[in-house]
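Suppose you are handed a protein chain with no further information: no name, no annotation, nothing but its sequence. What can you learn? This example shows the usual starting point.
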Amino acid sequence: MNRQAPIGPLRLAPGLDRLLHYQRSWLRADLLGGLTVGAMLIPQSMAYAEIAGMPPEAGFYAVLLALFAYAILGTSRHLGVGPEPGTAILAATAVGGMAAGDPVRYAALMAALALAVAAVCLIAAAFRLGFLADLLSRPVLVGYITGIGLTLISSQISKVTGIPIENDDFFGRIAEMITELDEIRAATLAMGTATLGLILFLRRWPKVPGALIAVTLATGVTTLFSLADHGIAVVGNIPAGLPALGFPDVSGSDMAALIPAALGIALVGYSDNVLTARSISAEHGYRIDPNQEFIALGTCNLMSGISQGFPVSSSASRSFVPASIGTHSQLTGVVAALFVAATLLFLRPVLANFPQAALGSVILAAAIAIIDVAGFKELWRLSRSEFALAAVTALGVMIFDVLTGVLIAVALSAAVALWRIARPSDAVLGGASELDGWVAVDDFPTARPLPGLLVYRFDAPLFFANAEWFHQRVRQALETNPGVEEWIIIDFDGVGSIDTTAIEMLEELLGELPSLGIEVVGVARTNSTTIDRLTRAGLLAPAGPIQSFPTINRAVQRFRNR
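A reasonable first move is to predict its three-dimensional structure. Written in structure tokens, the prediction is:
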């Protein structure tokens, strides 16, 4: 049973509110979900830390306190936060050049980047910028995630084949692999292929921690046959204990230099969080608070930053699995964090023997899963222009880097949106005996305009970007049958709002209409905000030249009774 949203101080801690009202009947599913997510986190955290250019233990550090933070502050009951490959690549791209090969500085900058992401998210929450999740359209997300998947695959070529790859971009890595096929190490390739095959096979049972099982078996084989002495690279020693808490030793100029990357990571990570959380919440009958999710994501990154981690976001696999198990709260995340902590404290020798090829296979499996072939097929079927936008996004991620690719995609998405608003659909409306209302004459062959009356519809807000277009389209509609129309009624139902540039355009148009034979100008179905703006501009009757009608039918009736 769903409770009302918390009020008072607990409004900012919805997860804690749910835990305080915990029901015993939830415990079994939540414990099972927590152990399952924890089992998934062991190989994923280590593998995604490698993507970020960090030591394997940093993946554990990044997730420990972040899970507790989200359990308190998050509005999703199922979202799994922590290391994620897309965020890891973005972070590595941002920090790599600044660190100049110094591993200590690299780790400090990674932690600082997590703190910068936290600051961006918390500031966004303060200004209630939850709507920013809508900036990444579906084509952009399809292209972004596919570009990430293909980039991840290319990044693991060396790890699962043994081929030394030096290039940092997708096409360079592929070209280098083709030219150096003779460098393949058979044992490494066999280990990577076998692990990948087992992970993919075990996906038939989503609730089974396939990655952990596969990597554990690979580790057992490596240990039993001493494969580390025969060319199989392993993780190696992992520092004892939990991470020391503190702020990274970086300068103010370093933090300033990280802000652009932090903005990109925050936008991508937040969008991923909200979209994943919304898709799950819709199936389970509760709602997500977009602005509260900014607070939760920001705090998660704050916890990761002070724990020697790196930027974190959400994982779809670690979110949908507990949802499928039927978990009820973020106790799942708490249990997963405790499982990871126990593993780090007591199973370090086992972790040290994890084969690098097996961890590479974990990343390959994740990459294969996120390549959205179905999404591209759907876009091709529905809209070739949006398919092209997705393809450009994917290529931008692959050719340049992830952040640049996303920025290109967002810019293209904004340009497409602006174009659609600047050049919206419009129509001349007419009536027909078999129709109840007024419809576009181009869409209904039986619809006819009334002689002497032009009813015109414009399907976008009137503002500076489309004011002149509106002006031209109205004149074109009138000049189609010059000297016939005496009245013009503009359907404002799709307009919604009007700015000062558009008002000036209306004043200019009103000065031209008498020369075209127009005696009366009216607007219909206008909202109160637009009516108020037109009234203050002195355009509405009785003081102004424009008459306002509540409906098109009322305007038509007035025309007939003139």
